[in-house]
Design goal:
It contains 10 helices and 34 strands. It is an alpha+beta fold. The longest helix has 23 residues.
Length: 644
């Protein structure tokens, strides 16, 4: 996607090949002299990088003598430098039609042009022709040819088996003049609601600063430099804003407080302005190059690229984790499932907190750096082989960082395209379904004291209800605010723990919810005191039965943890029903359910002296029994503090 100059330049000097092969149609000595003069002038212009003028002169030359093969080849080469691939191919094919033998050496660059527009079968055929007729004698050069052949073979096979949707069209959309300018804009990063876009802008081709734009009334407003102390006279680059828009992690190079050539820095949004950046310290940064950070949606992990010794290759991807005490850990290499003997860079962890995108110049691809993705297994490790994103996202050129929205459908990147505003611009495009991450929804809210309404810093935990696995553990900020992202397609148990308070638990039955859905969940924590009570929302029984269903164990184990953390607390377990059926039967059912919960706790070594139970049947409703929703709320299990 990111255009760079091709490595294979035509040697533009005025010379003629003199093959003595029977059957060739082209004789350089018989070219019209006026055409030759124009050709020579064109070569001079090309050597001065005045490609447009050179093309004009060559166009005149072939108009005088359309059989002028060298002029057609020169045009093809110059078009390649201008990234005008189709015109380059057209010029090559005109030359080949005149003389297929004289032009054999030019089929190498021709194959590159074909590959640049996705014509990999034709590119492979052209390259095979060169290898068959005039294979290079130099071993290093031959190895380069064979590597390119391997890339083309991969492309032919991969595109026919991996990308199933043949209707997919790669059509990047420029983010527009509110974001892109004559300067270069790059490293796009969005908040999860897609309402703020932060990015780096290079000012006067030298200083790099951070800017952001807000999506208001269906369009991006004019980008402004980030408020506060974040921008300095030093370069700020390779940023990512957190999903909630409150943290910013980025790369700073050659700064006075730097530990290596480039380090990772962190800044925080405070009262609408960004704090001065802080170096993440020696625990995270090395004396080498540390860059390209990507912050996980729960703000507990940072993936980044480093050239530090001890890795698998030149550039490897590492992860540092935020521990329970609020410190970042020693970085961990992601291992050979991701890193190779070559370079892996540009990590991006998606909002699903499972899918990692990155670039590699060693995993099999189309050439140079390709984009890949891999996913975490149930234990949180990247164990599957990386998957190439395929053409046309990957090309034979060097690819760079992607940022993918929470719904998994749209990717943002920076590139240089003909319709751009100048330099690198920020673009977006639709991702093919085969390479999309899991769609996500998100929950925001505040944890606060039920009595005082003051925010509480605490831990919020999400557990997949189907397999009892922890999906997310998020720490709220000092004000108790939090944001959690969740892959769609599952139901979840929601737990909050804070010392001195009763734990909170709830269910999120969102398996059928669409991506990009937003939930607001403010959580009032009850201080531990006599008669404080909570409902155990995730304790389940079958209809008219009192056997505890396995899905209840998540919640009951949280209750056990609470009791172990607060050994002085004694509790009453109470059972409640709706008013369907006979009152006596309901009272007995509720009592048996409460008794079973107590038995489970005792089985887990909670002292019987700390536990009591009671069945209230239908006598203490909390909702109207006339509706199913009300009856469901009345069917509940509660705990009440009886002594502290």
């Amino acid at each position: 996607m990111v255009n760079i100059f091709f490595k294979y330049w035509l040697l533009i000097t005025f010379c003629f090949f003199t093959y003595s092969v029977n059957g060739q149609n082209y004789n350089p000595a018989k070219v019209n002299k006026k055409a030759v003069t124009l050709y020579q002038q064109a070569i001079e212009r090309a050597n001065d990088n005045n490609y447009v003028s050179a093309i004009g002169l060559l166009t005149q030359a072939v108009a005088i003598d359309n059989n002028y093969v060298d002029a057609h080849i020169a045009m093809a080469s110059i078009y390649s430098k201008l990234n005008t691939y189709n015109k380059s191919i057209e010029s090559f094919e005109t030359a080949f039609a005149i003389d297929s033998i004289y032009t054999i050496p030019d089929k190498l660059l021709y194959s590159t042009m074909l590959a640049s527009v996705g014509e990999f079968k034709k590119a492979l055929a052209a390259l095979n022709h060169v290898l068959t007729v005039t294979p290079p004698k130099n071993e290093k050069q031959l190895a380069a040819y064979l590597q390119r052949k391997k890339n083309y073979e991969f492309a032919v096979a991969y595109d026919s088996t991996f990308l199933k949707d043949r209707r997919y069209s790669f059509n990047p959309v420029n983010a527009g003049p509110s974001i892109n300018t004559k300067e270069s804009e790059y490293f796009p990063s969005l908040t999860i609601d897609k309402k703020e876009l932060a990015f780096t802008r290079r000012i006067n081709q030298s200083n790099e600063d951070f800017y952001s734009s807000n999506f208001i009334n269906g369009e991006w407003n004019t980008a402004k430099a980030l408020a506060g102390e974040i921008n300095t006279s030093y370069n700020e680059g390779a940023l990512q804003i957190s999903q909630d828009g409150k943290w910013l992690v980025f790369t700073g190079c050659n700064r006075p407080d730097g530990l290596g050539s480039c380090d990772l820095y962190m800044a925080y949004l405070q009262n609408g302005a960004w704090s001065a950046a802080r170096n993440m310290g020696r625990k995270v940064n090395s004396d080498q190059w540390d860059s390209q950070p990507s912050l996980s949606p729960d703000k507990r992990e940072i993936y980044f690229t480093s050239s530090r010794p001890g890795g698998y290759g030149g550039m490897d991807i590492y992860v540092t984790r935020l521990n329970e005490k609020g410190f970042w850990s020693e970085p961990e290499n992601l291992g050979p499932q991701v890193n190779t003997a070559g370079d892996e860079q540009c990590p991006f962890i998606h909002a699903d907190n499972q899918t990692l995108y990155f670039t590699s110049n060693t995993w099999q691809g189309y050439g140079d750096d390709d984009l890949f993705f891999t996913k975490k297994d149930s234990a949180g490790n990247f164990t599957t082989a990386p998957v190439n994103l395929g053409y046309p996202i990957n090309t034979i050129n060097k690819e760079g960082t992607l940022y993918i929205t929470a719904d998994g459908a749209t990717a943002y990147y920076s590139g240089e395209r003909p319709e751009g505003k100048g330099g690198l611009d920020i673009y977006s495009f639709d991702l093919p379904k085969e390479v999309q991450p899991k769609k996500t929804l998100w929950i925001t809210g505040q944890v606060h004291d039920k009595k005082t309404n003051e925010g509480i810093a605490s831990t919020v935990e999400l557990i997949n209800l189907s397999n009892n696995q922890v999906v997310n553990i998020v720490r709220t900020d000092e004000d108790g605010d939090y944001l959690i992202t969740l892959p769609v397609g599952n139901d979840y148990v929601f737990n909050v723990n804070k010392k001195g308070y009763l734990f909170f638990s709830d269910r999120f039955l969102v398996a059928g919810t669409e991506a990009d859905s937003t939930y607001q969940k403010d959580i009032a924590l009850q201080p531990i005191e006599p008669n404080a009570s909570i409902v155990l929302n995730n304790v389940f029984f079958d209809v008219n039965k009192f056997d505890i269903k396995p899905a209840s164990y998540i919640e009951l184990d949280k209750l056990i943890q609470f009791l172990n953390d607060n050994p002085e607390v004694t509790i009453e377990i109470s059972g409640h029903t709706d008013n369907v059926g006979k009152p006596a039967d309901n009272k007995l059912l509720s009592e048996n359910r409460a008794k079973r919960v107590v038995a489970y706790l005792q089985h887990k070594f909670i002292s019987p002296k700390r536990l009591s139970f009671v069945g209230y049947g239908e006598t203490k409703p909390v909702a109207d029994n006339k509706t199913e929703e009300g009856r469901a709320l009345n069917r509940r299990t509660e705990i009440r503090i009886t002594n502290k």
